[in-house]
Amino acid sequence: MKIDIDVLGAGICAPGLPDWEALLDILAGKGLNEDRKPPRSALLSPRERRRAPAAVKLSFAAAEQACAMAELAPADPVAVFSSGMGDLQITDYMCRTLAEQPDLLSPTRFHNSVHNAASGYWSIGSGATGDVTAVSGWKDSAAAGLLEALSRIQYEPTTILLVIYDDVACGPMRDLWPAEYPFGAALVLARPGQRSAMARLEARIDGGEDHHPEMPEVLEARIMDNPAARILPLLGQISGRLPGPVTIGSEQGPGLQFREREK
User: Fold this and answer.
1) How far is Cα 121 from Cα 128, in angstroms, rounded to an integer?
2) pTM here?
3) By the 8 A CB rule, do 53 and 112 touch?
């Protein structure tokens, strides 16, 4: 099965990769500057920013960039948030507190511990009244999120905001999730011909492993570090600076291959 899609906007958030321009610089051969920081969220109030966990801030930074590039209000597209582990810092806090001093468990942090915390904050911050979905596929969450978004595009006449993100772990959780760098990325996807597109792609189900043209070493390292960063080759293809095809594989289900579509 082939699904044609248009990419209307894209965003990224990671140390040294705070925005789309930073990614373009690295793909053009420039170095990575880990001191570059993403801008504060325009959707969260100062009070909400203080309460929001790290995974929310990470995903919002990428999602707001993608919506701005697509010239869409954040509330407009249907949203899909995909993460393997959600907020790992909250998970560590919850486990430690319940084991050591359960009476001191923070209601706010308990509230933020659910896997759909980021998507819930997005509904509130953007004022979205449409569908906002949270999915997970462990280390295959990039492929799972893309598959969910493509399924929506195939069967619903709607624009999709896809957000893929994963933070770093602390404490004993690092044995399970040893990533050194957080990573978040977002795409605004639509059926062909609805609006001006930054890239036009065709996607096919593929049972193979990850495969992509060679990328700068620092980006290859991020792909190996954090499973959410497995979407980086697709971002490179969308930018026009990485020739296809790009395959994002999956151990637990179907992978996806992306090729540039003839204009």
Assistant:
1) 10
2) 0.95
3) yes
Residue whose C-alpha is closest to residue 112's, from 142, 140, 92 = 92
Q: Residue 245, preceding bond cis, omega within 30 degrees? A: yes
Residues 220-263: pLDDT tens digits?
999 999 999 999 999 999 999 998 899 999 998 899 999 998 76
171: phi then psi, degrees, rounded to nearest 5 = 65, -150
105-151 pLDDT, tens per residue?
Answer: 888 888 788 888 899 999 999 999 889 999 999 999 999 999 999 99
CA distance linking residue 52 with residue 50, whole number of Å: 6
DSSP letters for 133-166: EEE--GGGHHHHHHHHHHHHHHHS---EEEEEEE
Q: Which two tokens stand for residue 21?
A: 């321009």
Q: Helix (H, G, I), strand (E, B), or coil: what is residue 38?
A: coil
Six-digit token pair at 11? 């965003």
Q: List the domains of the chain with CATH numbers.
A: 2-199 (3.40.47.10)
Give the H/E segment covering residue 206. Answer: strand 199-206
Cβ–Cβ < 8 Å for 209, 248:
no
CA distance 81 to 120: 10
Q: Decide if 229 contacts 43 (C-beta within 8 A).
A: no
Q: What are phi and psi of 54, to 5 degrees?
A: -60, -40
Q: Which of 195, 201, 184 is nearest to 239 (CA)?
A: 201
Q: Tell me which amino acid residue 243 is.
A: P
Q: Are 152 and 163 in contact (CB under 8 A)?
A: no
- Residue 141: strand pairing partners: none
Residue 108: Cβ-neighbour burial (10 angstroms; 0-12, 13-18, 19+): exposed
Q: Tell me the sheet residues that pair with 83.
A: none
